[in-house]
Write a structure and sequence with these properties.
The chain has 220 residues and is α+β, with helices and mostly antiparallel strands. The protein is built from six helices and eleven strands.
């Protein structure tokens, strides 16, 4: 979760002003906010998340303690590949998250012969990522969904209308699943090069290579 810090600063001679920080990870905000309070110049202080929910430091500390043992700070990379000659699709997703103070990566791909376009394959790949989140027991958390499909990213973020019936159905299905899991989605468009891992997983699925893997990321 990302938040901003809003605090009322009280000067030594009694003058006051309200200050707001830039957005930052909740854990970083907590450290800074506690340091601010130690100055003795804070009249009031709270944090505000992307849903405009206000958090006291006590509430934020309890939240961070609660989620530490569960997957959090989650980013889902997704990509779909479609073979127009065979009407076969490959779906790929790579999920990065933290749990118990350690970073992890989950990779998953899937083959499909039931989709009708590349855009539909992209939607299906994102939905595959959501299914994996459910298996990880992710709920009531913000999640960043990242891909190179302008259609999917812009339609789900509300920038473009979903006029095609099959794509609209996928969008509705995704919205309903996210609501069921109480996941707050953020959609991020990246280049195809930046999405190479998910693209490779989708290509491997098209070639009949199944990939399922979870590993801890060890920093060198």
């Amino acid at each position: 979760m990302h938040v901003i810090i809003e605090w009322t600063y009280k000067a030594q001679k009694g003058a006051e002003t309200v200050l707001r920080s830039e957005e930052m990870p909740a854990a970083q905000a907590l450290l800074l906010a506690e340091d601010m309070e130690r100055t003795g110049r804070v009249k009031s202080l709270h944090c505000i998340d992307r849903q405009d929910t206000s958090w006291s430091l006590k509430e934020l500390k309890a939240y961070l303690k609660e989620i530490d043992t569960e997957p959090h700070n989650i980013t889902v990379y997704f990509d779909g590949g479609f073979d127009r000659a065979t009407y076969q699709s490959g779906l790929g997703c790579a999920i990065y998250y933290e749990q118990n103070g350690k970073p992890y990566r989950l990779r998953q791909n899937s083959f499909s012969s039931e989709l009708k376009s590349n855009n539909e394959a992209e939607y299906a790949a994102l939905y595959l990522g959501i299914v994996e989140l459910e298996l990880l027991n992710v709920h009531h958390l913000p999640v960043c969904f990242t891909g190179d499909s302008q259609v999917v990213i812009n339609q789900l973020s509300g920038e473009w209308p979903a006029l095609e019936k099959n794509l609209s159905s996928w969008a509705d299905k995704i919205d309903a699943k996210l609501e069921e899991l109480s996941i707050q989605p953020e959609y991020k468009l990246i280049s195809r090069k930046e999405n190479s891992e998910a693209d490779r997983l989708a290509t491997q699925a098209l070639n009949g290579i199944d990939i399922t893997g979870l590993k801890e990321i060890v920093k060198e």
